[in-house]
């Protein structure tokens, strides 16, 4: 920070240990709100891996190396590598349109995901059901309002995108390189 800026107030929960120095600071959020944030974070990780897997499969099926940016730290660069790979190698126009629509949806959700994953969390004094994620870091400052249901819905949108990328079999399993994978724990328990 260059100086002169004010750091906004926000509430945190401070847990002081009576037996050792393991004190904790955590956002003043309810369990269901924290679970919703974790749900979206986990869904996004799966989406990112599905994008990498799709880029890898398209590249390897066409005998070319994985694009350099497919493993870049920047999500935007990885998404662009996937888009370029789709445009280059997917010949079925309907499938190409479907995949490019997923690229667009992921790009549109990226800003919300960034705010959700990297923001400091608080709730509005005037409406405690309204959560806000914010950052006062220079060049990336933001404030976004959420509620637990809206966050869960964001996760469901990502789950839908993730699922649309994967090669599902009729029995509910995934097939990758000729091997079947159970898609849910319940298949492994029966």
How does this structure look, described?
The protein has five helices and seven strands; from the N terminus they run ββαααβββαββα. The termini are far apart. The relative contact order is 0.13. It has a three-stranded antiparallel β-sheet. With 190 residues, the chain is an alpha+beta fold.
Number of H- or I-type helical stretches = 5
Secondary structure class reads: alpha+beta
Helix content: 40-55%
User: Strand sequence of the main sheet, in spatial order?
Assistant: 3-4-5
Broad shape: elongated
N-to-C order of helices and strands:
EEHHHEEEHEEH
First-last Cα distance: 56 Å
> What is the CA-based Rg, rounded?
21 Å
* Unreliable spans: none
Largest sheet: 3 strands, antiparallel
Q: Output mean pLDDT.
A: 80
What proportion of the residues form beta strands (DSSP E)? 5-15%
β-strand number: 7
């Amino acid at each position: 920070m260059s100086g002169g800026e004010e750091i906004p107030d926000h509430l945190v929960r401070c847990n002081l240990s009576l037996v050792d120095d393991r004190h904790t600071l955590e956002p003043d959020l309810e369990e269901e709100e924290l679970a919703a944030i974790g749900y979206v974070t986990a869904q996004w990780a799966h989406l990112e891996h599905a994008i990498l897997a799709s880029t890898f499969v398209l590249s390897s099926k066409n005998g070319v190396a994985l694009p350099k940016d497919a493993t870049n730290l920047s999500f935007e660069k990885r998404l662009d590598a996937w888009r370029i790979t789709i445009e280059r190698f997917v010949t079925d126009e309907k499938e190409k349109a479907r995949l490019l629509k997923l690229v667009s949806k992921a790009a549109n959700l990226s800003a919300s995901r960034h705010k959700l994953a990297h923001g400091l969390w608080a709730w509005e004094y005037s409406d405690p059901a309204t959560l806000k994620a914010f950052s006062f870091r220079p060049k990336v400052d933001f404030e976004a309002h959420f509620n637990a249901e809206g966050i869960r819905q964001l996760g469901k949108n990502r789950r839908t995108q993730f699922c649309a990328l994967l090669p599902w079999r009729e029995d509910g399993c995934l097939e990758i390189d000729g091997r079947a994978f159970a898609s849910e724990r319940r298949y492994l328990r029966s």
